[in-house]
Amino acid sequence: QVQLQESGPGLVKPSQTLSLTCTVSGGSITTAYWSWIRQPPGKGLEWIGYISYSGSTYSSPSLKSRTSIVRDTSKNQFTLQLSSVTPEDTAVYYCARDRIGGGVYDYWGQGTQVTVSS
User: Fold this and answer.
1) Checking phi first, is residue 15 left (phi over 0); if not, alpha (psi -120 to 50) or beta?
2) How far apart, in Å, are the Cα atoms of 68 and each of 39, 83, 107, 111?
3) Contact by Cβ (8 Å): 115, 16
4) Contacts of 51 (CB under 8 A, 6+ apart)
5) What is the model's pLDDT at position 57?
6) I need a surface site. Which of 38, 46, 97, 117 has the fewest CB within 10 A?
7) Whole-number pLDDT of residue 25
8) Distance CA 10, CA 110 (A)
């Protein structure tokens, strides 16, 4: 059973960089595609980007200029960094696994609330 757990600060100030880590157990991040997805209050899910089994990354065009996704294979973790945040980045952030890169997620973290506010 693959398990994912998000961790990071729940409050970030505007213009700062949001950093969240997803720790994976029960499966290796050197297989499959590992995504970050968020849900702003009252809105639908928004895909942010992924890091693949090979370490390659791809991000949503709307967020690409502010997004970085890196991994630490020794810890089986991957990290999202979203720079220059504004209150519009307030959301519940999820990490999830896409086994074959087809946009279907079979395992999800529980999600973590991030609020951008001064």
Assistant:
1) left
2) 18, 8, 22, 19
3) no
4) 29, 33, 34, 57, 69, 70, 71, 78
5) 97
6) 117
7) 98
8) 14
pLDDT of residue 101: 86
**pLDDT tens sequence across 50-100:** 999 999 999 999 999 999 999 999 999 999 999 999 999 999 999 999 998
Long-range contacts of 49-55 (CB under 8 A, 24+ apart): 49/80, 50/98, 50/101, 51/78, 52/101, 53/29
Selection from 49, 5, 54 nearest residue 29 by Cα = 54
Cα 22 from Cα 6, distance rounded (Å): 4
Residue with tokens 């791809």: 58
User: Mind spelling out the 3-state secondary structure of the chain?
Assistant: CCEEEEECCCEECCCCCEEEEEEEECCCCCCCEEEEEEECCCCCCEEEEEEECCCCEEECCCCHHHEEEEEECCCCEEEEEECCCCHHHCEEEEEEEECCCCCCEEEECCCEEEEECC
Q: Do 107 and 2 contact (CB within 8 A), yes or no?
A: yes
